[in-house]
Write a structure and sequence with these properties.
Order of helices and strands: HEHEHEEEHEHEHEHEE
CATH class: Alpha Beta
Radius of gyration: 17 Å
CATH topology: TIM Barrel
Number of helices: 7
Strand content: 15-25%
Distance between the termini: 27 Å
Largest sheet: 6 strands, parallel
CATH architecture: Alpha-Beta Barrel
Number of domains: 1
Number of strands: 10
């Protein structure tokens, strides 16, 4: 984790957030995939390491976060876990529809079981239902369902408008995430049209590189800023102890 901080300092970032994936709390311990998320016994150490790095690196603001999957039917379990720690912010996401990991290349054949328009409707409904729990500050990689290039066949503007309205009503932000540029889809999350729909609905935005390696910290930051500006944003949210602060885009 120290290498991520050192990269952020080299990149000149004024602040960074750690948002590792929460352990797979909805599964029995012997069914959790350690390649997808930390183990439950690592969780306390993760929080402690962020605090240690804060003390070691006063030159940069380091925020404590976690990315937590919304799994329908397990809301109470997630709430009890999140309430144990002093987060600066919590990212919400949807990676699973039932037992299917929709962003996992090992299971990409699962897309063949869906009509893509039905899939998109179902996926975005899950995302919005997660936002409506009130447990998340920002929704991560909002249109992750496009990761392998699967697009709605119907005009998605009505769908995007509905998503924007539900996210606005839920009081969450949307993350502009550069990791999509490093995935098969080859574009930022969310799509430009979806980001415009969020802005029109009054959904604030945050910035994230979704770094899974130190060298990805701050990756393609100028492209993310341009993406936000093109959608009509002129500022982004940052967080400290779940409190929002607005920062002007450079």
């Amino acid at each position: 984790m120290a290498a991520y901080v050192e990269q952020a300092v080299r990149a000149g970032l004024p602040e960074m957030g750690f948002s590792d994936h929460i352990f797979m709390y909805w599964l029995p311990r012997d069914q959790r995939d350690p390649g997808l998320a930390m183990l439950e016994e690592q969780f306390d150490g993760y929080v402690e390491e962020v605090d240690r790095l804060r003390q070691a690196h006063p030159e940069i603001a380091i925020r404590l976060s976690v990315e937590a999957d919304f799994i329908d039917g397990h809301q109470a379990t997630l709430a009890a876990i999140l309430d144990r720690y002093p987060w600066d912010y919590v990212l919400g996401s949807v990676h699973f529809i039932g037992d299917w990991g929709l962003d996992d290349a090992r299971y990409v054949a699962g897309y063949d079981d869906w009509d893509v328009d039905v899939l998109c409707e179902h996926y975005f409904d899950l995302v919005c239902r997660g936002a409506e729990t009130g447990r998340f500050d920002t929704i991560a990689h909002l249109d992750l369902v496009k990761k392998f290039g699967h697009r709605p066949r119907r005009d998605p503007r009505d769908l995007y408008a509905r998503v924007g309205r539900r996210l606005a009503a839920a009081g969450v932000a949307v993350e502009v995430n550069t990791a999509g540029l490093r995935k098969p889809v080859g574009e930022l999350y969310p799509h430009a049209d979806l980001l415009v729909a969020c802005r029109e609905a009054g959904v604030p935005a945050t910035l994230g590189s979704d770094a899974h390696a130190p060298e990805e910290v701050g990756a393609d930051y100028p492209l993310a800023v341009a993406h936000l500006r093109a959608a009509g944003y002129d500022r982004v949210l940052t967080y400290e102890q779940r409190r929002r602060d607005w920062k002007a885009l450079p």
